[in-house]
Write a structure and sequence with these properties.
Elements (H helix, E strand, L loop, with lengths): L1 H8 L3 H11 L11 E5 L5 E5 L4 H12 L5 H11 L11 H9 L6 E4 L2 E4 L8 H13 L19 E2 L6 E6 L3 E6 L13 E2 H15 L4 H48 L5 H52 L2 H11 E7 L2 E6 L3 H8 L8
Parallel strand pairs: 5-9
Antiparallel strand pairs: 1-2, 3-4, 6-7, 7-8, 9-10
């Protein structure tokens, strides 16, 4: 499982190519509204301003920056100005929010939580974008403490009968109960109050089962992980060394390429073409090195988390505060449902396999 965790961190060639394009300031998907994708007969693609909508996007930000418009009234105003969806209907409110939150319009593109400067013409200034963000953060916001009370199973359990959320509440200041919200009364019209302690019983039973793993087997697993770690370290070092060597080789070739240009052995066009190819290869190598570094870090985090949680799950859970208990349950369980007054769930991998073998003296199925 740890080896698989390492391998999954290594991006394939397509992902690295996309990452390389993003670092070069190129957007790899469909252009946002206000821009349009174009291409030529040679297969070269680009993104340019859409003359029909770019000015309307700018107007949208300018109107919102005044502070006099909500997303609803802004949508209405822009629909009057001629900015609609592709099917001729007013923009969805979610699309209005997406546009106002999209940094692409001032010169940065957001991908997988990271921002990259792009090479396309901005529609608005960064100052205008940030002003809109300040207004969005302050619009209609009042002090509101959602989930201020600590409930272990809040948002984690749904009613098996109708699929609605199980809502927690406190009775007499100390007793916690869960009940279906009954949003689908045609499927579930019976209000059943389930004490939190009833939900905790199968959880405690599950966590105690992990403690039944024979110590001899734990020692065997640890020894196997040590050997696995030695092989992983060797592979990691060799992979990094090979990539670094390839990078340095390309760098030497770049120096020779410059000499050939100075000696007029090659033309400027040939030089530019080879230079672009070699630099793209170096970009790709740098991304691969980052992938290996990230995979190595995640390998250790995964190993540490799995072993500590599996070995000390029960004590960790009992001694933790409510936020930590919720984190442990989110990490261990999935598909939690309330069937009448019983809690049912499935266990995430790899803990389902650990639990399957926990009570087997020889750790063999059957």
């Amino acid at each position: 499982m740890f080896a698989r965790s390492y391998v999954l961190q290594l991006s394939d060639n397509v992902k690295r190519k996309f990452e390389q394009k993003r670092r070069n300031g190129e957007w790899t998907g469909k252009a946002p509204i206000g821009y349009k994708n174009i291409g030529d007969i040679k297969g070269n693609k680009d993104i340019i301003l859409d003359s029909n909508t770019a000015h309307l996007i700018r107007k949208m930000f300018e109107l919102y920056a005044t502070g006099n418009y909500s997303t609803l009234t802004l949508r209405t105003e822009m629909s009057k100005a001629g900015l609609d969806s592709n099917v001729g209907k007013p923009l969805a409110l979610s699309m209005v929010s997406h546009i106002l939150n999209n940094p692409f319009y001032y010169g940065e593109m957001l991908s997988k939580g990271k921002t990259y400067p792009h090479k396309y013409q901005p529609i608005i200034s960064k100052q205008l974008f940030e002003k809109c963000q300040q207004i969005r953060k302050g619009w209609g916001k009042k002090p509101f403490q959602y989930a201020s009370k600590p409930y272990i199973f809040r948002g984690l359990v749904r009613c098996k009968k109708c699929g609605c959320a199980m809502s927690p509440e406190t009775a007499k200041g100390k007793f916690i109960y869960y009940s279906c919200t009954n949003a689908k009364k045609d499927l579930c019209d019976k209000k059943i109050y389930i004490p939190e302690k009833d939900f905790l019983k199968p959880i405690y039973k599950l966590l105690e089962a992990f403690e039944s793993i024979p110590q001899a087997k734990i020692d065997e697993i640890v020894e196997g992980l040590k050997k696995s770690n030695e092989g992983k370290d060797l592979y990691h070092k060799e992979a990094i060394r090979a990539l670094q060597q390839e990078y340095n080789t390309i760098q030497v070739r770049l120096s020779r390429l410059t000499d050939l240009l100075l000696d007029q052995s090659i033309t400027k066009d040939e030089y530019d073409k080879k230079l672009k190819e070699m630099k793209e290869k170096q970009y790709d190598i740098n991304i691969q090195i980052e992938d290996h570094t990230r995979a190595d870090e995640n390998y250790y985090i995964t190993a540490s988390t799995v072993l500590n949680l599996a070995k000390n799950a029960f004590e960790l859970f009992k001694s933790s505060e409510v936020p930590e208990k919720r984190a442990i349950l989110n990490y261990l369980l999935q598909n939690c449902v309330a069937n009448e007054n019983k809690l049912e769930f499935s266990i995430r991998s790899p803990y389902n396999h650990i639990l399957t073998f926990a009570n087997q003296p020889n750790w063999l199925r059957g």
